[in-house]
Fold this protein.
Amino acid sequence: MLQTTRAAALAALLVLAFAVTTSPAEARHRHHPHHAVAAAKADPASVESNVLRAKLKNGLRVILIKNTLSPVVATSVNYLVGSDETPEGFPGTAHALEHMMFRGSPGLSADQLANLGSIMGGEFNANTREALTQYLYTVPSEDLDIALRIEALRMRDVDADQAAWEKERGAIEQEVAQDMSAPGYKLYERLRKELFAGTPYEHDALGSRPSFEKTTGAMLKDFHRTWYAPNNAILVLAGNLDPAATLEKIKTLFGDIPAKKLPARPKMTFKPIKAGGIFTIDSDMANFTRVIAMRFPGLKSKDFAALEVLADVLSSRRFALFDLVAQGKALSASFSIQPLKEASIAYASVSYAPGVDGNALEADVRAILQKVVKEGVPADLVEAAKLQEKRATERQKNSITDLADVWSDAVALYGLKSPDEDLKRIEKVTVEDVNRVARQYLNLDQSVSGLLLPKGSGKAVASTSATGGMETINLGEAKSTELPAWAKTAVNRLSVPETALKPVVSVLPNGLKLIVQPVAVSDTVGVFGHIRNRQETQAAPGKDGVATLLGALFNFGTEKHDRLAFEKELDAIGAQEHAGTDFQIQLLSQDFERGVELLAEHELSPALPEMALNAIKPQLAQSVESRNHTPGYLAQRAFVEHLYPATDPALRQATGASVITLTLDDLKAYYKTVYRPDMTTIVVIGNITPERARAAIEKYFGGWKAEGPKPVVDLPDAPPNKPATITVPDSARVQDQVLMALNLALNRSNPDYYALELGNQVLGGGFYSSRLSIDLRKNAGLVYSVGSSLAAGRTRGYYVVQYASDPENVSKAANIITQNLKAMQEKPVPQEELDRVKAMVLRQIPLSEDSVDEIAHGFLERSDLDLPLDEPSLAAKRYAEITAAEIQAAFAKWIRPGDLVRVSQGPEPK
């Protein structure tokens, strides 16, 4: 449940380290005028266009942002406390309390809270950071009252008795083990230790097993009593709500919670950095990742806006760092700032394949940064960065959940009035400001270097024991739980949600399918495209890896504009663009036609320069070869090899040898086969009319022609797999990552899909309230998380359960999972449990439309699977009708518990 500020840093590091990836199997899954909101009476409130602010008498700050994208509201309760305020020697106290907040409060038991969370659609989470702990719900608008009541009860008190903590401690310790098994996390933690020694920032908010062993329920309750107060919180709501009426509801629920006298905050004194040398972290990744990190000022600094612009400039694809990729010296390169209140971590990162001289590459990075210190940055890149920030601010309105997130960060972390205030600061930044902060803070003499060092893996090892000795358990069938009176109507409401989406569909003469969805929550337009393709069936024999190499070559511009010139054209309109079999551009409505022109230019006439091919191919080939020996890839490979026969196209794999022999003619031949208008769907969504969208798409994509018959992209039928247990050794992990799966002859259009999916939600949906979570996490503390999914494509699918646990618990957890699958076949789901799961699934439908990106990708996915675009509404009707007997029959027909393939990555399971 933890999503700390380290997430962005880890994401960046993992993207670098996993520059080459592969997919294991087939299934992939009106302009409305803005209205000012009237200020509420009683407490002082301020009003802006679509934003209502208020401060209750007890000190609770409230911000309500109206956004009518979908009938959804995102709530964010921001407590201004985190790991900074934890007791000496107990760095994970705030994180532990965050977990316990889902174990219940006076007036709301853990079971009631779990059931309500799932009934509202299961979209809830929390995260603990250094100076902030957040509790997040995204719910249908009609369930907002329930979400607010939950948060009001949790603000008042928490049930943190010792027995409940001892159960939750097992789960949180599994979360620690999960992160300690991630090389990117270990690198990030080491950077913090080097840069922030002797301060609370030395460790992130996660905590450690030793500190959790010493923690007690009474300590956690005391932490809540000390810091969880309305005058130490900011409540942010965004979505389709009535701000004035919602504020009155908030006053009723939160207004009588007493304020508290808050303790003093800790003060930080940073020591000089011990620079020099390089530390290494053993990694199970394919490539090397090298990081040069420095301590920058924090969010409180007047220089932070200029530092944001500096980071944007250094990460520009027109800046010299990316030239290292273009020259074939690195697989990827970037510059990032991970901000904290008092100080920040700034780091340049490069990823490169085995065989590359990492010391020479680091010297190149240092020389580039040193040149910035001496000569400054290009003025046009500063202006481009500021324009991109402006466009990004407008795009924030395109997601209700993201809108609540960015507002919460702006007010609770940045200490600003709104995200727009950050933009105003950035717009005032000058080239001189950027050059000044570069000279002042890009201090390479006070930097720390870290290296993720790939270690590879031993071969996958088959076991003769499928699951080990069986033990009898009480299965986690969700028991009937009496809900509070104010929540009972929610579980009884199984209505099919209505959608406001009305896509306009047309097909161009060349076969290209166009879907246009007008949405006017922002002045932006997104163009999203997908070409139905499959490298496993379309690549010529011996040409494995051709799609990966072709994708990398798209970075080098078009026939009309070289790489730098093309990026400059995109910067001129502040657009974000990507070309390939999945392509997109996002920009302001005023620049729509120019954006479509550039996207079509890139997609239909990529430059594919041979000089660039020769530069990047050797390192990419080495990276692919290295990937093939990593534990993650070997586990994925074992998964596919044991689900499908040896002759199945899904078992094709690229090697270093296959990539290095690819020629420009091979890439062009593959491009000609795959890139066809009659295999392409484009979605245009945003502040646009269908007529304007069609005119631009037809103008710039209408001349695209297909040659010859359509290619075969579907995978063949596969016989049922046989059971197997495989272990992939991974010395970098302290915890095992486990997949349990079986293949299915079921495709996405099969009528049984819906009964199976509803049964799958009984097993793995709704967090605490699902059967697997009840057994494995809530009651036993064997795992931090467990999930199950039904993946069905155009011709076939598979069913998979995934979890992570300590080695001694792998077989125990596997046995529990197997028993749960058998139970679904042996007896029907009780009606109360089925109704709760139906309520959750029906509410997930509007939640899946709470962002422009999700709507667009939903259209593309349904088009790719030949499903109706309104399939979610049709599915809702089907889910509402399904009986327990149908679910039992579907599991008996399709699920084969005795044929499960179990693949473990990590230490030898016990």
Remarks:
- The mean pLDDT is 90.
- The domain at 504-701 is CATH 3.30.830.10 (Cytochrome Bc1 Complex; Chain A, domain 1).
- The CA atoms of residues 727 and 904 lie 5 Å apart.
